Amino acid sequence: MILLMPIAYATGFEQAFYNSSMPLFIHSSDPAFDLSAKLYLRAALGVFMTATSFLIGPITDRFGSRSLVLLCFAIHVFCQPILL
Questions:
Q1: Which of 6, 44, 49, 72 would you call most buried, defined as having the most Cβ atoms within 10 angstroms of its Cβ?
Q2: Helices within the chain (DSSP H only)
Q3: What is the pTM of this model?
Q4: What is the rounded distance in angstroms from the CA atom of residue 68 to the CA atom of residue 63?
């Protein structure tokens, strides 16, 4: 996983430039600030994805992936009425 961290960051930067997958709400009068904010946001997403991979891996090793999928499904079912 540690060796995959630079690839996750590089993928985030690539998506920021080529895929236009960054949020459009980051818009100010300074384009350089907008770009840096978007890149920092993508880097934070890469860090979060790496950290959750480190946390979820041991959980799935201990309980199996099926129980984790059922837990995520239950969380989504619980949250849907709250969002309405």
A1: 49
A2: 5-14, 31-63, 65-83
A3: 0.51
A4: 8
Structure-token match 């199996």, residue found = 64
Distance CA 31, CA 33 (A): 5
Rounded to whole angstroms, how far apart are CA atoms 53 and 2?
11
Count of CB atoms within 10 A of residue 46's CB?
20
Q: How far is CA 10 from the centre of its chain?
A: 14
Taking the C-alpha atoms of residue 1 and residue 50, their distance in angstroms, rounded to an integer, is 7
Q: Tens digit of pLDDT for each residue in 21-61?
A: 556 666 778 878 877 887 787 778 778 878 888 888 888 88
